[in-house]
């Protein structure tokens, strides 16, 4: 859960520091996670203490979509 919290915080930071919309910030984080997936698929190492990137991007995407749905209500 810590990684998911960190990704959510990264979205907040991008929104404030870079004046991004939530959609832009989420897209940036998802792009980063997918790039990590591709690096691992090419044989790159998984950072110690982290889950496999494919699992992270799917989890992050679901969590952000859920948060967006709740905000819309």
Shape: elongated
**Helix/strand order, N-terminal first:** HHH
**What fraction strand?**
under 5%
Mean pLDDT: 77
Q: What class would the helix/strand composition place it in? A: mainly alpha
- Count of all domains: 1
> Segments where pLDDT lies below 50 for 5+ residues?
none
Gyration radius, in Å: 13 Å
State the helical fraction: over 70%
Number of strands: 0
Can you summarize the main beta sheet? none
Q: N- to C-terminal separation?
A: 24 Å
Fold and architecture overview:
- By secondary structure, the protein is mostly helical.
- It has one domain.
- 77% of the residues lie in helices and 0% in strands.
- The protein is built from three helices and no strands.
- The radius of gyration is 13 Å and the shape is elongated.
